[in-house]
Amino acid sequence: MSLASCLYECEIAHARQKPRQHSFLHRHFMMYLDLDEVESLRTTSRLFGRNWLSPYRFSQADHLPDNENVNDLQDRVRSVVRLKGVEEQIRSIRLLTNVRCFGYVFNPVSFFFCFDAAGQSLCCLVEIGNTFGEKKAYLLKRGREKVFRDRQQKLFYISPFTELAQDLVFDLSVPGDRIDMRVDTMDGQDKVVSASVRGKRLPFNDINLLALTMRYPLAPMRVIALIHIHALLLWLKRTPHHKKEDNIERQVAVMNPHYSLRNDTKR
């Protein structure tokens, strides 16, 4: 059976230009899941399962929390993009993300690519998370061919070391033999942070998944550990930072809000 789902072995690059310079490059891997194929992947893979003992497990509850208790993730995606102005009918959704590894997951960013019945890309919903457990979704409508580009206000503390009023500039392409994703943080015309994910496609099977596990063991745990290590390095460089409680009224459309936002009516 030919699968749309696959694996990507990636290089993640991050370069901060101001107010302090700081950069890194890490190797990692991610899964690109056709959400219609998840159940079949669970039955054919010994490493990708449904219970907490499985080395890798995908949980719909890890994405797009919904106040109306819509259990199906695809329905939640369709609801969000419809509210954001996409009127075309979405036939399939594919998600580039980290999944649970021995029960743990952390996703700095996940990409929902939405396709019509003819297989043409319609939009991409970018779900960005922070270490407070919050998430925010940004919608990108299709530009030319399979490329998504847009600039949007951030208004979300992705990192305490960036300002709320800065913008995110997205430059993404639909995954194919390779992935090439770029999200830059801009302050006017000045680039503050440049972040990219580039990688090559591997078929989704246990051989490749085992090889990637050996190269990048406990991948989600490594992600959260590295985030805190680099945050410590930025702090040691005396990089200015913000408290989560700063500018509550400007942190809008936040999902899973931090307790400091929950009672704020302007959220």
Strand order of the largest sheet: 9-8-7-5-2-1-13-12-11-10
Q: Total strand count, please? A: 13
Sheet of most strands: 10 strands, antiparallel
* SSE class: alpha+beta
How would you characterize the overall build of this protein?
By secondary structure, this protein is an alpha+beta fold. The protein is 19% helix and 36% strand. It has one domain (6-262). It contains five helices and 13 strands. The strands form two sheets. It has a ten-stranded antiparallel beta sheet. The chain is globular and about 50 Å long. The termini are far apart.
Q: Could you provide a short overview of the structure?
A:
The protein is an alpha+beta fold and 267 residues long. It has helices at 38-44, 73-83, 206-215, 219-236, 259-262; strands at residues 6-16, 22-34, 48-49, 56-57, 92-97, 100-101, 109-115, 121-129, 135-141, 147-153, 167-173, 178-187, 190-203.
Which features does this protein show?
267 residues, alpha+beta, 10-stranded antiparallel sheet, 3-stranded mixed sheet, 13 strands, globular
Topology (elements, then pairings):
Elements: E1 6-16, E2 22-34, H1 38-44, E3 48-49, E4 56-57, H2 73-83, E5 92-97, E6 100-101, E7 109-115, E8 121-129, E9 135-141, E10 147-153, E11 167-173, E12 178-187, E13 190-203, H3 206-215, H4 219-236, H5 259-262
Parallel strand pairs: 3-4
Antiparallel strand pairs: 1-2, 1-13, 2-5, 4-6, 5-7, 7-8, 8-9, 10-11, 11-12, 12-13
